Structure formats: C-alpha cells, structure tokens
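Please check this one:

***
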Amino acid sequence: MKKYAIIIGLCCCCLASCIKDEAPNKECDIESAWVEGTEYEKYFYQTTEMRKEKVSSAETDIVFFVRSLISLSKQIPLNFKITDGATIEPANGSIQDFTNGAVVYTVTSEDGEWKRKYNVTFQEAPLPAQKYSFENVETRTEKTMLGGVNEMHIFYEKSATGEPNYCWATGNPGSALTKNGAKPEEFPVYSTPDGKEGHGVCLTTQSAGALGEWMKKPIAAGSLFLGRFLVDFVMSDALKATRFGVPNGKEPVRITGWYKYKPGEKFTDLNMKVYPDRKDEASIYAVYYRNTDDKGESYILDGHDVEDLDKVLENPQVYKVARVASLPATDTWTPWEMFFEGRDAPDDIVAAQGFNLALVLSSSKYGAQFEGAIGSTLYVDEIEVSYEK
C-alpha cells in the first residue's frame, strides 16, 4: 500500500505540468479565458464561444472561433483567470490584435520560478469537414516528474488561413501520468506511416500498470475523438475527462472510412478477471447534438452521456446518432460506414454553428468501463463525412 501511495502522489503532481512541488504558489496555469462586452458578440456565431472554461493543465493552445477574420476588430481585450498569485504577459484584459495569427501569453508563477507559454488564436469557424486523412501530426514533448521526457503525437486539421485546428483529442495525456521517457509509439494512440493512403492512426489498448490495476482502471484503450481531453479529471472521474464534439455548421447524414483490427488475446474486466468466452471489439460512433441548452449555457457531451448508446437519443440535446454495427478482425484495409438516425435539426440553428459533431473511435468498445483486451489494435484512415440528404 505504501508503494501505491507514493505512485499516486507522483501522478497527482503530474496533473499540473508546471508545479515543482505541492505549493500552490508554484502554479502557472490559465484556467479560463473570455471576451467580455456586447459589442464583441457580433463576431461570434454563438455567445457561448466567447468563453473558454476549464482549460486543462495539459493544454497550451486556446482557440476562439469567429465568423470572419476580415471583419474582426484589431482591438480585442482578452480576459483570463489564472492560478493564484501568478502573473500574465501581455497584461490581463489588454487590447491585442488577433488578425495576424497567434498571440503568445506567458504565465509566471508567484515565486517567479516557473513559466508557461500559451498560444491564443482567433480562427474563422471551420467549414464542415468532409474528409479526415490524418496527414497533419506534430510531436509534442513534456517533462515528467521523474526527470524524463515523454513524446506524443498530436493530430490536427488546418483552418482556412492555414492555422492548426486542434480539433482531435486522445487519451494519451492520461496515459502519460504513468510513463517516463515514452516515445509516441508507446502511447495508446499514434501516427503510422502505413495508412490506407499516406499516414493513418493506430489505436491500441494498453495496460495502465500497477497504479491503474489498484485503482480499478487497469487498461487504457486507444481513443481518438473530435473534442477535448481534460487530464485534470483522470484520477477523480475519468469519464468527465472526455469532452466530445466540435461545432459543425451542416447536418451529417453518413460517415465512411477504412480500418484494420486485431483484438487482444485475453478479455478482462476492471478487476483483471479473464473472460475466455468474450472477444474484444472496436468501436466507431458519432453523435450530433445541440451545443447550447435551454438556459443559453454552453453544453458539451462527456463520457457519462455516451455510456449507453442505446439511450443517447433520450437526451433532449441529442438529435442524431450513428454507429458502425460491427468491425470484424481483419489485417487488410477494409471499408466501414454508418448512417445517422434521429430527428432533423433546425436549419437556422445548424447554420449558426449551434450543433456539435462528436466522432469517437476506440480500440476497445467497453474501454470507458475499463473492460477490454490488452493488445487490441485498431487502425483507421480516410474518414469522410457526407452531408447530402
């Protein structure tokens, strides 16, 4: 038990990458960012897009989506909530020009020992993507509490102006808490040069180590999705760590793609009990939902909302759901498709970016419940979304 207590202590420290020890005055994070003032509402499709809440301690890119960069004012005051005692440069609330690319903000801890840089950009709300080929990938490095450096792949799309749009998220930051000196291919999700065309994505179910087994979270399924991953919730409520969906200004009808899949040998539950008669399955599904609730507040799906896909349409925010019926094991690139079922969305709200599209892919169908087979591997590539009714 003492060994596990030490491991848990180290992992909790990892949740804030710029903290040297547990002293609060050593933190240097942006917790939220927002544009304030009714005169700026005209630049956004939804007023909820004027605020970015719960910025994860693993995020260093903050993006605000606007109607147009051409008409955007060159004098936008941006406000931040930062950790206690920290300072930020440029100054909090100062007027900046975001029409020429990213503005870099530096947060310094209260004791002046730690600094963290954030790239803040304003981008035109992306046109509904028709194809995802996964050719855009970068390798990010992050120091670990044990003195090593982890490297992981980050997938992104490009905006109309060529800026990276980090719309894809993975569970890799959560897995990083138990790794030290890991390379991209040692994480559950990474880029592979052997895609259907060019590069593709490999998703694999891994062991979460002694700590994961002790916490009844023994596996880490490879998970890739449109949305955000908030590593801060990994220890307390893993399902809240996944925030599914990005704004989409068209109503999807069908999604297709290519895959290869090999299930792992031993299917286990959260107690690592082996079920010889169960085979692991991959999962691909999508949800189209209203991103603002009846009170006008921002709404986003998390892992709790999609635990039972058969009941997702009972959620009044959800309009359509699509899922691939089955993904049989295959070692050759094989096509898949899924069609959306549900009710039609109001055209005017759709056009105003009032809906989010969540697309989720996993190497273990029940990975969110920490059930699956270590070694299950799913390859995906060339995903295409159709909007024609």
Remarks:
- The first helix runs from residue 2 to 14.
- Residues 1-21 have pLDDT under 50 and may be disordered.
- The first strand starts at residue 30 and ends at 35.
- The helical segments are 2-14, 172-175, 209-214, 347-351.
